[in-house]
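Consider the tokenized backbone below.
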């Protein structure tokens, strides 16, 4: 395990170093060819724009899967290497086609008498010329948007990670079946200590030894899913699934639904009719407890989204500075980037742990038995 970590770190350093050398040579070539035609202010503005686009490419979802690009955009010979994804639109009926028909936003697609254009990662209805209309006061786009049910880059990666998790745990289960109580083989040797940690330090302390087992499949799934997704978000593939509020919102909603479905009589009594307090206070506390219950999924959603997005913005900003050499002292930027990558590796696991811990805490509050409250009310009645 330690050897694999060292190999990964060495590959990461070599990759980042290659980016630095490539950016330096590219920058020198640009200086030689455009020094006379572009002022320093224009060059600085162009570099800032390129860094911003580099960050957006990593953070935003897209309708195609671009692995890397070749050529120079300024010279008009930029080419994207990747593959197209299915576009599924609901606009007076289902319309399906491949994203390659958009030609990376350069072409207007006509389907069923309607015209569609891909503009800044979103699909708008336009005329045959692809006109994008803006509000004169706010600058917002006023074109209508169809219901977009497309298989985007994030959706593809979600399915790939689910398949990866399935084969990982399936292989681990098979190794237990073959070996009995022996140590699992392959990936199971790495997964077993983490599973035991989630069981002994997360599930049992927060849910209870009697009722934790039925929640373990969900806790393990959500932990490994968030962790693996965050790790892939640090790769050059430009995939950042947890940067989407739709993804973090669905994860938080699943936790909320399981908590509500598992809630016992004591759970609902502590929300709508708090035991052990005078009845006027019960009326006051009921709406407060109800608001706190509704806020829980929102706190899960925003916490995961904000922490991952903020870290990736800082990391991609520094990497963009390296690639486009827009900050004096690229060596210092490189060192900061390496340090931030190591921190992000820790944050990837930390955010998965926090989400799993809070989910277990919510489940524990839903199934907890409050015998002391009933004993207190019984003694007061007598």
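A designed sequence for it:
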């Amino acid at each position: 395990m330690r050897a694999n970590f060292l190999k990964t770190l060495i590959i990461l350093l070599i990759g980042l170093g290659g980016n630095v050398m490539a950016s330096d040579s590219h920058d020198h070539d640009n200086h030689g060819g455009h020094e006379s035609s572009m002022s320093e202010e224009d060059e600085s503005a162009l570099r800032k724009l390129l860094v911003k686009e580099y960050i957006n490419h990593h953070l935003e979802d897209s309708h195609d899967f671009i692995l890397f690009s070749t050529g120079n955009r300024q010279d008009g010979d930029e080419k994207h290497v990747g593959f197209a994804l299915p576009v599924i639109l609901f606009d007076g009926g289902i319309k399906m086609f491949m994203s390659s028909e958009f030609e990376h936003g350069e072409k207007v697609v006509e389907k069923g008498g309607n015209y569609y254009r891909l503009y800044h990662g979103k699909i708008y209805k336009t005329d045959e010329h692809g006109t994008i209309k803006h509000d004169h006061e706010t600058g917002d786009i006023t074109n209508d948007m169809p219901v977009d049910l497309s298989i985007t880059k994030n959706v593809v990666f979600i399915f790939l990670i689910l398949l990866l998790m399935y084969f990982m745990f399936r292989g681990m289960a098979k190794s237990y079946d073959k070996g009995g109580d022996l140590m699992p083989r392959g990936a199971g040797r790495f997964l077993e200590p983490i599973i035991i940690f989630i069981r002994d330090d997360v599930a049992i302390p927060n849910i209870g030894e009697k009722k934790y087992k039925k929640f373990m499949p969900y806790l393990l799934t959500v932990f490994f899913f968030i962790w693996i997704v965050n790790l892939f978000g640090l790769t050059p593939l430009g995939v950042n699934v947890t940067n989407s509020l739709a993804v973090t919102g669905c994860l938080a909603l699943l936790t909320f639904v399981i908590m509500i479905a598992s809630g016992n009589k004591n759970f609902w009594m502590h929300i709508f009719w708090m035991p052990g307090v005078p009845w006027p206070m019960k009326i006051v506390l009921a709406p407060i407890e109800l608001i706190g219950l509704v806020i829980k999924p929102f706190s899960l959603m925003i916490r995961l989204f904000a922490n991952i997005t903020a870290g990736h913005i800082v990391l991609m900003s520094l990497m963009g500075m390296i690639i486009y050499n827009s900050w004096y002292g690229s060596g210092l930027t490189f060192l900061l980037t390496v340090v931030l990558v190591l921190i992000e590796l820790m944050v990837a696991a930390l955010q998965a742990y926090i989400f799993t811990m809070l989910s277990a805490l919510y489940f524990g509050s839903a199934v907890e038995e409050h015998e002391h409250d009933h004993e207190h009310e019984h003694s007061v009645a007598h």
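The CA atoms of residues 228 and 269 lie 38 Å apart.
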